[in-house]
Design a protein that fits this description.
Blueprint lengths: L8 E6 L2 E7 L10 E5 L5 H9 L2 E5 L3 H15 L5 H10 L3 H19 L2 E5 L14 H8 L6 E4 H16 L1 E2 L7 E2 L12 H8 L8 E5 L5 H8 L4 E6 L2 H13 L6 E5 L8 E6 L22 H9 L4 E12 L1 H4 L5 H10 L2 E9 L14 H5 L3 E8 L3
Parallel strand pairs: 2-6, 3-4, 4-5, 9-10, 9-12, 10-11, 12-13
Antiparallel strand pairs: 1-2, 5-6, 7-8, 13-15, 14-15
Helix pairs in contact: 1-2, 5-6
Length: 388
């Protein structure tokens, strides 16, 4: 049995015949069990009701009309709850932790519902619908080649198109003198610039022979370290997309001779003068590949970094842990737990630099987690090996 035989498939009945195609979902969503064929005659209220009930709609109409239908379904999903329901919801939110989990549940249900509007795609990533855009390049970047038909949610497809546009345009990085980093699909984009600025401002130790960037993602922090004068930087990651993305960015920035991108589970061999890591900052389960940069069950990467750092620091070296304290404000981790993990790793705090996030959610009073987000601080913890 080859790999194609075990790919999940989606089935439906159309024109009196049973049909099927490969099911594609980067979030790992299971193929919907019930599928109806829909076209331009479908009303938004009916579509939203069917989606809420778990029935997916395989679109056969105009592509731009499908986008408008998705927008209409989104407006319905985002309607404020009725007063009685709102009171019940508020009564249940007895703690910040519960508020966070309720918010995650609501976001998950919203994603499932809006993911029920489906688009057929032919081999070569061709969308066989009227007024459909050319998505071949965007889908090839995200999925690789396609030699068989598949079905994907319109919501995911629009995300793939948006990621392609981000990749082509790039993100301007002030710490790189305005040069751009180009994120790939599924790789966290450095749009939250405070953590990059912290790495650009932190004092370097006297020896600058070697730095490690653990979990490099786009490679932006490795590039900043190289531009700051580190003679050699080793950037590690496990995600094939991140590795390809980092290599491309390093080459584009003219740093390929000084920055080595290596596949590794956190650690390359040896010890470094600077070891930087920006692990996921919320100890919770991610629901999509992109969320792995934010959510990490039980803070596994954070704990693994702290427990192994001392063994990978050169004499006089520093580990730079870049971490948002949002989890503390959400009640998911305490400052004492973080400090205990630092101590248990045989580490000492040599200093700390703080920055306030400037992203829109930090000032959005309508955000269910506004109280926590508005108090959030991102810190660069300067860690050294404790005297033996």
């Amino acid at each position: 049995m080859n790999a194609a035989d075990v790919q999940p498939r989606i089935g439906w009945r159309e024109d009196g015949q049973d049909r099927s195609a490969r099911w594609r979902s980067e979030s790992g969503a299971a193929p919907p069990r019930r599928v109806e064929v829909a076209d331009d005659r479908m009303k938004a209220d009916v579509a939203y009701r069917l989606a809420c009930e778990g029935t997916a709609l395989l679109w056969r109409g105009d592509f731009q009309n499908a986008r408008q239908l998705l927008q209409a379904m989104t407006r319905r999903a985002d309607r404020p709850p009725k007063p009685a329901r709102r009171k019940r919801q508020e009564a249940r939110k007895t703690s910040t932790v519960q508020a966070f989990h309720l918010h995650r549940q609501a976001q998950g249900q919203r994603a499932r519902t809006l993911g029920m509007l489906l688009i057929p795609v032919e081999p070569g990533h061709d969308v066989p619908l009227r007024r459909a855009p050319d998505v071949a390049q965007a889908c090839t970047e995200a999925y690789g080649p396609a030699d068989e038909p598949y079905v994907v949610s319109l919501r995911e497809l629009l995300g793939v198109i948006g990621a392609h546009e981000w990749r082509a345009r790039g993100v301007e990085i002030p710490a790189l003198d305005g040069d751009r980093v180009h994120p790939h699909y599924g790789v966290f984009s450095p749009v939250r610039g405070e953590y990059v600025s912290l790495v650009a401002d932190a004092p370097l130790p006297p020896s600058r022979a070697l730095a490690y960037d653990i979990g490099t993602g786009t490679g932006v922090l490795a590039a900043v370290l190289a531009r700051r004068g580190m003679e050699r930087v080793v950037a590690t990651d496990q995600d094939p997309r991140a590795l390809a993305c980092a290599r491309e960015n390093v080459a584009r920035l003219g740093l390929a001779e000084r920055v080595e991108v290596m596949e590794a589970d956190l650690w390359p061999p040896g010890r470094a003068d600077v070891v930087v890591c920006n692990p996921p900052w919320i100890p919770a389960r991610p629901s999509s590949p992109l969320e792995h940069a934010v959510y990490d069950p039980d803070g596994r990467m954070l704990r693994a970094f702290l427990s192994g750092l001392a063994d990978h620091l050169a004499p006089g070296g520093e580990g730079w842990l870049i971490l948002s304290d949002l989890a503390e404000h959400l009640g998911l981790r305490t400052r004492a737990e973080l400090l205990d993990a630092i101590g248990a790793g045989g580490l000492t705090v040599a200093g700390r630099l703080d920055a306030r996030p400037a992203h829109p959610r930090a000032s959005d009073a309508a955000d269910p987690l506004h109280a926590a987000r508005s108090a959030e601080v991102t810190s660069l913890w300067r860690l050294t090996a404790a005297p033996s």
